[in-house]
Amino acid sequence: MNVYQKYKDAQGRKTGPWFIKYPIGRDSLTGKVRYKIEKVG
Fold first, then answer.
1. How far apart are CA 39 and CA 41, in angstroms?
2. Closest Cα partner for 36 from 18, 27, 24?
3. What distance, in Å, lies between the first and last C-alpha atoms of the chain?
4. CA dihedral in degrees (11, 22, 38, 18; nearest 10)?
5. Cβ(8)–Cβ(29) under 8 Å?
6. What strands lie across the sheet with 3-8, from one edge to the other?
7. What is the DSSP string of 6-36?
8. The model's pTM
9. What percent of the chain has pLDDT over 70?
């Protein structure tokens, strides 16, 4: 599942470039999902 979103500033308003966050696998030590984040547009 991909997530498209913007960063938020101190007041909670969306600002800056859009980015996409998607899972790339699980960490073998902790079992947590690892994510890759890339800026888009």
1. 7
2. 24
3. 19
4. -40
5. no
6. 3-8, 14-26, 33-40
7. EEE-TTS-EEEEEEEEEEEEE-TTT-PEEEE
8. 0.55
9. 90
